Amino acid sequence: MALADLAGYPAHRESARPGIVDFVERPVGHLDEFNLHWTRNVENAVKPVTNGVKCGPVQIDFNHGTTTLAFKFSGGAIIATDSRASSGSYIASATTDKILIINKYLLGTMAGGAADCAYWERVLSKQCRLFELRNKERMSVAAASKLLANMLYEYKGAGLSIGTTIVGWDKKGAGIYYVDDDGQRFTGDLFSVGSGSTYAYGVLDTMYKYDMKNEEAYELARRAIYHATHRDAASGGFINRMLRRLLCSGCFLFLTTFVCEYVLYYWTIHRCSWPALPHGTQMEYPLPYNFSRVLVLADPHLVGPVRGHRLDRIRRDWQIRQAFQTALTLLQPKLVFILGDIFDEGSWIGDADFRSHLERYHYIFQHDRSKIIVKNVVGNHDIGFHYAIYPYVDNRFRRKMTPSRNSSSVRLWSHAGVHYVMANSMAFEGDECYLCSEAERNVHAIAYRLQCMPVNRSPTAVARCPLEEDYSQPKSFVDLDSDTSRPDSYTRPILLQHFPLYRDTESSCSSQPADAMPHTGRLKKYRPRWDCLSLEASQKLLEQLRPRLVLSGHSHYACQLEHRLPGEPDTVVPEITVASFSWRNLPNPSFLLPHREEKNKDGWGRELVLAYYNHSEVCASNPTLYLDCSCLGNLAVSQPPCFLRVAWQLGIGRILQPNDCSN
């Protein structure tokens, strides 16, 4: 105004004719941009008349017609309206949305003049947003309705046509307020506004009750609007309800959740196949001993009560279970090995929490015991590192995780003519403790047993091996369910343990798998007895057991290395470190699919050929506030499905493109 006065610009009020409008300055700070100066002395200016307004000699006639309602119930509050917009006897629109969104916690209905309702509730929306920015909290439903009533009262008698119901949710719960163009404001549990409100009240007064289920409330709102549209000529169209919005959003979220949390697991894993055998298809070989499909996973780290939140625990358990059960359904393995760190806090939880962990373990890794064998290897998170192991915790894990089986620190298990040595990696410290003594004893005994098998006896071994050994007799180092029906079957064993064999760094590992360690961490030095076995323990295991394959975990990343047997530089022993099976440790967890085949080899009977190393991407999602879906595995599509693209655009989902799992 100061600039206008300096420039000599005439004031706005001079453009009005004296005597028609009596100007009075009114402090309406919340509407400075609409600071209209007038009084209620509008006899010669704007005068409301029946079905319209009169401004001087001009009379504007218009009819109002609508039906809106809102009521509270035990589940919250519901709004319903018709959709007809009329202009006198003319139906202007049959698809008008009369539910106005002020913000995501506040709604209003439209009854009266459509332009007036839309405009003033848009102004209210702006004021609510400004209040939230100034005060760092949302405006309550009562305050919003009071603000609208105050604004409308300033223009009482100006010919506005507004009858709105403000409905929202705040700290006090659901709130419903009726506000009209005279500035009147009422609160209650049930309101109906519009020309069809009397008919809607007839239904509401008869059937309304507070204790209703959601479906009953939806049906009552629908029935009241439906009845009004049949009795009121100005009401009609279809029924606008917040139920319709909720259903659209709910269906979208349900469909997205269903696809991301269920379908994508099958979509990805069904493309993961067993390694092709070098001699043809498996149907060319007799069963049952020629083939064993083995699924190997490591480090599931079931979340504990100390370092994990309950929501995190529920989320990770669901991901691991869904991936594991999908793999069992589609891949149908015969053997499953879990290479340690089954629990994240197994070394310090009490018995009550341990029982809870056991229940979760049996639920997540549920399987048909008549068709699938699951073997567990102990890890440092299950019982602790070497100097933190309590005998009670160690024995508790042995009893519960290896029931009815031998649970020694190093044990031999034979299945279908193939021998597996399962070792406790924390028992190779070499300090002659009870664990280390037992492990050293059992390693010697297992090596002796394998060397003295009839088919493996060399001329030098005959003198020190018993001629008649009863392999069916139980041994302290042999699993009780070990297959002893084929004592003449010898293959070099497969060593299963949690710690990898000695390695200086991860730099010598292949970077090809998608679940390999990132290059930024490959040069970090490994600590013997913490990150891997010591060099002495590794050499001793290779020399005495002469394994043909070593499977390990612990590092949470995939790695493939080759070792040489001491004294036999031409004999290569591959080692595969399996990546973690938990999304908490790795963004792309995986499992290993080895496929065994036996063939005859001259002079040595059956020899194992292992077609191994097929890392498969598994499927899951990361938690966010609403939903975060991950397209896991290479989906081999140019564009994701429509609803996934919509999820991306709304910011509630993200789509990954990991490598093909069949590499």
From TrEMBL:
Domain Calcineurin-like phosphoesterase: 293-557
Keyword set, alphabetical order: Cytoplasm, Hydrolase, Manganese, Membrane, Metal-binding, Protease, Proteasome, Threonine protease, Transmembrane, Transmembrane helix
Single GO molecular function: threonine-type endopeptidase activity
Compartments in which it is found: Membrane; Nucleus
Signal peptide interval: none
Catalysis performed (reactions): Cleavage of peptide bonds with very broad specificity
UniProt-listed Pfam families: Metallophos, Proteasome
GO biological process: GPI anchor biosynthetic process; proteolysis involved in protein catabolic process
InterPro entries named in the record: Calcineurin-like_PHP, Metallo-depent_PP-like, Ntn_hydrolases_N, Pept_T1A_subB, PGAP5/Cdc1/Ted1, Proteasome_bsu_CS, Proteasome_sua/b, Proteasome_suB-type
Needed co-factor(s): Mn(2+)
Keyword ATP-binding included in the entry's annotation: no
EC top class, as a word: hydrolase
Membrane topology: Multi-pass membrane protein
GO CC annotations, alphabetized: membrane; nucleus; proteasome core complex
EC number in record: 3.4.25.1
Family assignment from sequence similarity: Belongs to the metallophosphoesterase superfamily. MPPE1 family.
Name of the molecule in the record: proteasome endopeptidase complex
Source organism: Clonorchis sinensis
